[in-house]
Amino acid sequence: MTRRELAHWARQPVQVVVGLVFPVMLLLMFGYLIGGGSGVEGDYREYLVPGMFALTMTFGLDATMVAVTQDLNKGVIDRFRSMPMANGAVLVGRSAADMLQSAVSLVVLVGVGLAVGWTWHGSFAAFLGALGLLLLLRFAMLWIGIYLAMVAGRPELVVAVQILVWPVGFLSNAFATPESMPGWLGATVEWNPMSATATAVRDLFGNKGGTASTSWAAEHAELLAVGWPLALLAVFFPLAVRRFAALSK
């Protein structure tokens, strides 16, 4: 199933390129055109780039969601159901292909970050640990997207469902520090799963910026960066597999 999804890349190169270019455009736009960084002290790029890494892992689920709904509506899934395979094989294959593309996208974005002057200051092991946290967040968000795609059922409804993911990305500390926001909003932002990952990878990269927060969420960002994705996976992975099994009845 993973090979099947990867074979689609050769037939849809534009979609793959757009997926790689979009986060680069966001990084350059916020870093050079919009600026910003409310509450950030020092080099804004050291704050922005890790936040963009986390944002990229949260967005871009629409391609996977559309692919799932297209398979459901074109009868491809019915053919797979007649084969001796586990109910979750189709979904796991789709998620594996998406994770490969996400890893490539992350490597490209790291290269762009280095090109515009960002760098990490920690050890190489810490660097790899940060990338692992980012991909873990992506894996969790991916299964949320797969489940929501099956709930939507049709490709044209995916756009409406995708909007539900936007608050996770923009109500975060990707572009500005929670300390610069109103108290209630800053507290909400700090507990955002994406904010936890962004804060954790900044720490692992040795990137600083903004006023050091003394909140529990900020001081235990690494724990939350692991706990949030695992909790989301514990909920949405079985929901997605169960939903897929129900569609086959």
What would you note in describing this structure?
The chain is mainly α and 249 residues long. The chain contains 13 helices and no strands. The two termini are 21 Å apart. The mean pLDDT is 83.
Return Rg in Å.
Answer: 19 Å
The run of helices and strands is HHHHHHHHHHHHH
Distance between the termini: 21 Å
Shape: globular
Q: Major sheet, described briefly?
A: none
Helix count equals 13
**Count of DSSP strands:** 0
Binned strand content: under 5%
Structural class: mainly alpha
* Low confidence ranges: none
Helicity range: over 70%
Query: What is the averaged pLDDT score?
Result: 83
Observed structural traits:
single chain, 249 residues, mainly alpha, 13 helices, 75% helix
How would you concisely characterize the structure shown here?
The chain is mainly α and 249 residues long.
Helix and strand arrangement:
Blueprint (H helix, E strand, L loop, with lengths): L1 H10 L1 H22 L9 H15 L3 H12 L2 H6 L7 H27 L8 H29 L2 H8 L3 H5 L12 H8 L2 H13 L10 H4 L1 H27 L2
